Amino acid sequence: MPAAQASLDLAPVLDTVQRLDHDAIERLKAFLRIPSVSTDPAFAGETRRAAEWAAAQLREIGFRVEVVNTKGHPMVLAHHDGPKGASGSPRILYYGHYDVQPADPLELWTSPAFEPVIVEGHPINGKKDGPKGQRIVARGAVDDKGQVMSFIEAFRAWHTTHGTLPCAVTVMLEGEEESGSKSLDPFVKEYAKALAADICVVSDTGMWDITTPAITTMLRGLVYVEVTLHGPSHDLHSGMYGGTLVNPINALATIIGQLHDGDRRVQIPGFYDDVAPLPASIRDQWSKLGFDEKEYLGEAGVSVPFGEKNYSTMERMWSRPTCDCNGIFGGYTGKGAKTVIGAHATVKLSCRLVANQSPEKVFAGISRFFQDRCPPGCRIEIESHGMSPAIAVPADSAWLRAAQRGLAKVFGKEAAVIGTGGSIPAVGLLQRELGIDSLLVGFGLDDDRVHSPNEKFELACFRNGIRSHAAMLAEFANVVSH
Ligand code: BES
Ligand code: ZN
To answer: Cβ(422) to ligand 1 under 6 A?
Structure first.
């Protein structure tokens, strides 16, 4: 261990975390009150305000901070040199996002999405007969403001206790993660030097259950498109024109109906060409995790699984590609009835990708699929809302073992090594552009209602997240950097 770090004990830092608990929750509430919905231009000012707010937090605890403008929402970039004289100390990059998903449908929230409240409840995977815990309910509670605050609060505790951090730390907070990360690529290229690090720590994933931490090593990729089928030049009376010319909604629905076959396999040309089978060793490891399918489906209000034939629910969730409609509209969607043939119909469609699939190839396949089926006299328009490949990060490394040691100090047990069905474009980009691998250590639970009304974060998870980040930082300081 470098001499300069020997005096930086973890125990008093954990005491500080305890002492700052009330203030940490108040700070999280303040962050959650800012409606930083990145996909909707109406919230651009608020999204910037969230960046400035996070920047101020980091400034307060000794970071040099810049809020960097991009073509989209700003990036927060912050540096802390760590302990003086600790040359050779590892450099750790922390990534998170301060933007959130839209809160719609607003009427399904039991309290307003941007007015955080603390309520009591049973986390499903803490078992219903277990103790109730407090949780904070608001859009962004777990995805990702609560998780971003878990590492910022850990830094605060280190700074308050020892006046420094045990390692050199860079923080990059993005404001477009929920809307395609378009500004991230140019930013990472331009700021490559400032972002240089031995490892990137990402807190934007989940735990195995409320008492078992998890490290995620596989993420699916994503191709998101919006397809519009244009027919007549304007909306028409369905009595005068129904049955005499093409109805774009009917036609689009027909095409969508052909996306899957009877075995629920995706019919886009070449879709499965590059999909590698799941290695038997990983399937084995996953099968030992004790996945509870009933509980997983129950949380979604469903009793029967559905999906690609011959694959288990867990395999379909983490290691098989998908094609899903995310929204569909056209014609009249207001109250009551209106007899009309709409001029156009649109579907928002996304494919989750797995290892080896090329997003560009899948995008080209989707385009061809719709163009080939476009009815005569109609026109297909396709807009891309971003794409990113699937990624795998090392499932064993000195960094992962250091994280395991830190997590074990807090939870008293080993973290499960898992996959996830979700996507975090930054992880792939940092790997490709800068050669930096990520360590995905998150504190969400399956029942946190990510992207849904009444999103929440258990305070137990928030607190353990802060402790874990504090403990992992101490362990990272002992890993010899290259
Ligand atoms: N935090 C999620 C990713 C995630 C979801 C991890 C579920 C683990 C479990 C992230 O903020 C997210 O939602 N990402 C988007 C990315 C997309 C817009 C490119 C996703 O996966 O839909
Ligand atoms: Zn997220």
So the answer is: yes
Query: For residues 395-420, b (16+ Cβ closer than 10 Å) or e, as one string?
Result: beebbbebbbbbbbbbbeeebbbbbb
Tell me whether residue 241 is exposed, middle or buried, using C-beta atoms within 10 angstroms of its C-beta: 0 to 12, 13 to 18, 19 or more: middle
CATH number of this structure's domain 222-275+321-386, picked from the four choices 3.90.1570.10, 3.30.70.360, 3.30.230.40, 3.50.50.60: 3.30.70.360
Cβ(207) – ligand 1 distance below 6 Å = no
Beta carbons of 51 and 74 less than 8 angstroms apart = yes
In ligand 1, the atom with minimum distance to the C-alpha of 204 is: 1
Name the residue among 183, 29, 37, 202 with its Cα closest to residue 104: 37
| Residue 361 dihedral angles phi and psi, to the nearest 5° | -65, -40
- Asked if the model's pLDDT at residue 65 lies above 50, the reply is yes
Output the DSSP codes for 349-373.
EEEEE-TT--HHHHHHHHHHHHHHT
Closest Cα to residue 219, out of 406, 426, 456, 401?
426
Q: What separation in Å is there between the alpha carbon of 201 and the centre of ligand 2?
A: 14
- Show the tokens assigned to 77: 């970039």
Domain ranges, ordered by start, for the chain: 3-219+390-476, 222-275+321-386
At 291-306, the pLDDT tens digits run 999 989 998 899 999 9
* Ligand 1 neighbour 147 (Cβ under 6 A): no
Q: Express each pLDDT in 157-190 by its tens digit.
A: 999 999 999 999 999 999 999 988 989 999 999 9
Q: Is the CB of 206 under 6 A from ligand 1?
A: yes
CATH topology for the 3-219+390-476 domain:
Aminopeptidase (3.40.630)
How much is the average pLDDT of 87-109?
94
**What is the average pLDDT score of the chain?**
94
Ligand nearest to the CA of 348: 1
pLDDT of residue 132: 80
4 pLDDT above the threshold of 50: no
Beta strands in 18-108 (DSSP E): 64-68, 75-80, 91-97
